[in-house]
Amino acid sequence: MKNFKIIVTLFFVLFNAKNGFSQTNNKDVTITSSGSGKTLEDAKQAALRSATEQAFGAFISTKTEMFNDQVVADQMSSVSSGNIKSYEVLNESQLPDMRWGVTLKIIVSIDKLTSFVQARGINIEVQGGLFAINIKQQLLNEQGEINTITDMIGVLHESFQSSFDYTIKSSDPKSLDAESKNWEIPLEIISKCNKNIDFCANYLIKTLSAISLKEDEVQTYTSLKKQVYTVTINHNGNSKKIYLRKQSSIDAINSLTQNWEFYVRNFVVNSGENQFIGKGQVSNFHKFSERVNSDHEYEFRGIFNDLIIRFPTQGNTVGTFLYDDKKTLSQIEKISGYLIKPRGVVSMIKNGGYVIYDSIEGGYKIGIGVQEKKVTYVSNEFPAYYDFKIGDEIVSINGKPYENFDQIKTAMLNFPKGNVIMNVKRGEDVLKIKVMPRYIQPRKGLVLAIYDIRNESKPASYGGETIVVGEWKDAKKVCEDSTLNGFDDWRLPSKNELQLIFDNFYSFGLGGLIDGNGYWSGDSWDDSVSVKAHYLDLKQKKMYATNIGGQYRFVRAVRNY
Q1: What's the pLDDT at 367?
Q2: Residue 552's pLDDT band (boundaries 50, 70, 90)?
Q3: Which of 176, 319, 525, 544 could form a disulfide with 264 if both were Cys (CB 3.0 to 4.6 A apart)?
């Protein structure tokens, strides 16, 4: 182990910051941290480990070879228990999927952290003044704030997708032509909140209350001419106002609230003849959130200081959707009725952000899901070499009676040595389907950051106003220099990735991307006149190319896993 000399600021003065990150005595600090896990103990350990890592990074080192020492990194979790003097539970909730989420106020011993560092052969030198200490604590509070909020959003994103129940009503079919060959069946789909919506409201209120600036802290921020951001949450007749420290915190929460219509529409309708997901014109819809700012500011700057959230409660109707299901007469004869049900969790936040697509091992695939012999999923990513439908029952594969999914895997491994022939039962008919699997190249997964990255250290001017994302080269660098959700390998998306994010993510109402000045891609080239880069205009639904100099776009980073 090399002998590193690290400059460390230890607090030998009494300073009290009442929230987030503060000092309780000369060698203890208080950190507010959150965590989630399969059990309550797992969630607490995640929060404790996060608090230890925050203290470690703040007081021992933030940029040093020590963090590249895997031995030290592996020992951090075991060190946590020895560094924690005590903790207070601010929020302890069991999630709808039976996991747990917690927010803790934790007292960490700097003495023990120092001993740990010195045991690794690192010299400690003490320095720092009171004013610098106060500002440093504010910066740590700000970082802890966004860490807690992004962890909270990861919990709520899944919970919201299970917060609605649905009913469907059909009216008498209407003829669309004189020969009465084509018809439309008017459908009315009603979305109502179930008990999970109240869990989401309470979890959000408790978590944000735990990290909110107190009244005296708001005054301190104002005296330092630092911006304070507010979130007002209305739920069940009560109103709670939260004071936050960072624009990125507002951006992250806004990203969650802008998913609202996706959550409310998270249903699938099956007629027996076909199925559709989330369709229908809005007839009645609950306005969940409101950004408090001018349209011009938001469109070109992406900035607003205040956010209002209006939570419904269990039993409230939040959406009514009207859809005309067009059918031929022969198709109508096969319909026994319309069944509607929630889709459950179909979009996840993991590995630092929204999952655009998961990693794939590669190999021959046919793109179906099977449960208890019934086809439960048919992928739209695969060519139509076959004609599976939801509800098909697999009878046999290559002449052998179907017993379990391993037979499908074996058939894929043996292809293309021989064809894959499946017999499936559909209603009263047994069909023979010749399956031609498609070879899929292995790929890494792709995630999209939860909120836009802002180049706050180098704001640019647009139309006489200040914006927080500048030219392409600055956007590229601020992505690569960012550490979000514990990961530091973020980058601008490629042109193709940005288009995929638009087609398969944003177009479904996910991610809280801004319909404003467009988003940079990481693809650039020299056309002999100037260097250009692609950007995606969400309003025009098109990719454009523009000079990288003097052009200002928004930035949403991606990473692979």
Answers
A1: 81
A2: confident
A3: 319
Do residues 456 and 468 lie in contact, with contact meaning Cβ atoms separated by under 8 Å?
yes
Residues forming beta bridges with residue 425, ordered by sequence position: 393, 430
| Beta-carbon contacts of residue 373 (< 8 Å; ≥ 6 apart) | 393, 394, 402
The pLDDT tens digits for 61-96 are 443 444 444 444 444 444 444 567 788 898 888 888
Residues 96 and 196: beta-carbon distance below 8 Å: yes
Contact 451/255 with Cβ under 8 angstroms? yes
Q: How far is CA 99 from the centre of its chain?
A: 17
- Domains, the chain, in order of start with CATH, read 5-154 (no CATH), 163-346 (no CATH), 381-439 (2.30.42.10), 449-560 (3.10.100)
Q: What is the mean pLDDT of the chain?
A: 81
Q: Which residue has the higher pLDDT, 400 or 113?
A: 400
| Residue 447 near residue 559, CB atoms below 8 Å | yes
DSSP string, 378-421: E-SSS--SS---TT-EEEEETTEEP--THHHHHHHHHTTSS-EE
For 273: left if phi > 0, alpha if psi spans -120 to 50, otherwise beta; the answer is alpha
pLDDT tops 70 at residue 407: yes
Rounded CA-CA distance 104/84 in Å is 12
Write out the DSSP string of 344-377: ---S-EETTEEEEE--B--EEE--EEEETTEEEE
Other beta carbons less than 10 A from residue 378's beta carbon: 18
- The answer to whether the beta carbons of residues 324 and 183 sit under 8 Å apart is no
* CB-CB contact of 72 with 119 (8 Å): no
The phi-psi region of residue 366 (left if phi > 0; otherwise alpha if psi is between -120 and 50; otherwise beta) is: alpha
Nearest to 59 by CA among 34, 85, 23: 23
CB atoms within 10 A of CB 535: 24
Going by pLDDT thresholds of 50, 70 and 90, the confidence category of residue 266 is very high
- Whether a cis peptide bond, with omega within 30° of 0, leads into 437 is no
Dump pLDDT digits (tens) for 435-473: 878 788 888 999 999 999 876 655 544 444 445 556 888
Cα–Cα distance list, 369 to 108, 268, 340, 405, 537 (Å) = 48, 16, 20, 9, 35
Stretch among 11-20, 51-60, 109-118, 387-396 having the lowest mean pLDDT: 11-20
338 φ, ψ to 5°? Answer: -100, 130
pLDDT score recorded for residue 112: 63
The two structure tokens encoding residue 476 = 């590229």
The CA R_g of the chain, rounded to the nearest whole Å, is 27
- pLDDT tens profile 166-184: 999 999 999 998 888 899 9
Give the largest CA-CA distance in the chain.
90
C-alpha span between 482 and 480 (Å, rounded): 6
Which pLDDT score is estimated for 20?
A: 45
3-state secondary structure of 529: coil
Return the ∠ at Cα 220 (arms to 219 and 226), rounded to 5°: 100
Q: What is the pLDDT of residue 128?
A: 46
Strand 5-8 and strand 123-126: pairing?
Answer: parallel
